[in-house]
Write a structure and sequence with these properties.
CATH topology: Ribosomal Protein L24e, Chain: T
Oligomer: single chain
CATH architecture: Roll
Helix content: 25-40%
CATH superfamily: Ribosomal protein L28/L24
Shape: elongated
Strand order of the largest sheet: 3-4-5
Number of strands: 5
Order of helices and strands: EEEEHHHHE
Strand content: 25-35%
Distance between the termini: 29 Å
Number of helices: 4
Number of domains: 1
Structural class: alpha+beta
CATH class: Mainly Beta
C-alpha cells in the first residue's frame, strides 16, 4: 500500500471484509488500517517528527519505549516502510558519527 510507505504501519495494509445488504447480497469491501497522525521526538536526531502511525505500530512504539528504539530494533520486514528505513539510516549515521549534521527530515520540525 502506498500510504504505508509514507508512515509507520508495522506491516498493516488494506483488509477485506464481506458486507451483506438487506436482500442478502454479498459484496467485498476494502478496509483501511486504523491510522492516526502523531508527532514523536527523536532523541538521536534531536527533532520532532510527524508521522502517520497505525495503532499497531503505536502500541509497538510504546512497548519499545521510544520511536528511536522502535525504528532501530524492528526487523525491516515488520517495519515494511520506505520512510521507516529512511529514518533508520539517518539514525545509524548519527550514532556512528556524532558530528554528522542531520539534513532536513521530511515531515519534521527543526
Amino acid at each position: 500500500m502506498r500510504r504505508s510507505q509514507r508512515g509507520l504501519f508495522h506491516g498493516k495494509g488494506m483488509g477485506r471484509k464481506t458486507q451483506t445488504c438487506f436482500s442478502e447480497k454479498k459484496s467485498i469491501v476494502r478496509q483501511k488500517p486504523n491510522a492516526r497522525k502523531q508527532s514523536f521526538f527523536s532523541e538521536i536526531l534531536k527533532r520532532q517528527v510527524n508521522l502517520h502511525v497505525s495503532t499497531t505500530a503505536l502500541r509497538h512504539i510504546r512497548h519499545r519505549g521510544s520511536l528511536d528504539n522502535y525504528v532501530l530494533l524492528t526487523h525491516p520486514k515488520e517495519l515494511d516502510s520506505i520512510y521507516g528505513e529512511y529514518l533508520r539510516r539517518l539514525m545509524l549515521l548519527k550514532l556512528n558519527d556524532p558530528e554528522y549534521k542531520v539534513p532536513y527530515i521530511v515531515k519534521s520540525r527543526p
